[in-house]
Amino acid sequence: MARYTCSFTVAVSPDHLQPSLIEVLQSCDFDIIYDTGDYIMAREIPGHVAFAKLVTVEVLIDKSMATDQEIRMNFVIKNEELPLQVDNHCHDKFYEVQEAVAQNRHWQLLESVAG
Fold it and tell me: Rounded mean pLDDT of the chain?
């Protein structure tokens, strides 16, 4: 199973985070399948890759450390594909999500940590 993690701290008001985050995931061809307000799960839209390569994104919004101006989000991006090569579909989607979060116009990226 391929699995990549990263954390982002962004400057955004709490009211704008949820819709902006959903927009970011949808722009990367993910469909939101679960949303509790502080946890979002999204799955890649089927049709472009084999079923085992479909990527799932889990986002945990850390509201315990949030302020009115900054929020930390933890991402887990994974699929059932064995990561036999560094350049695999899951890693490509991981990079795409990282870029989309970093370039989002609705917030300012303060910190990015890939794990």
Answer: 91
Q: CATH number, domain at 43?
A: 3.30.310.80
pLDDT digits (tens, 9 = 90+) for 26-37: 999 999 999 998
Q: How many domains does the chain have?
A: 1
Share of the chain above pLDDT 70, in %: 100
Task: Give the C-alpha separation, 29 to 42, whole Å.
Answer: 9
CA contacts within 13 A on the Cβ side of 60: 8
Q: What is the mean pLDDT of residues 65-86?
A: 87
Sequence-ordered strand ranges (E) for 1-115: 2-11, 30-35, 39-44, 56-62, 70-79, 108-114
Give the residue carrying structure tokens 């889990």: 58
* Residue given tokens 């986002």 in the structure block: 59
Tell me the residue range of the domain where 66 lies. Answer: 7-114
**Residue 112 structure tokens:** 């990015």
State pTM to two decimals: 0.90
Task: Give the residue carrying structure tokens 């949303």.
Answer: 35
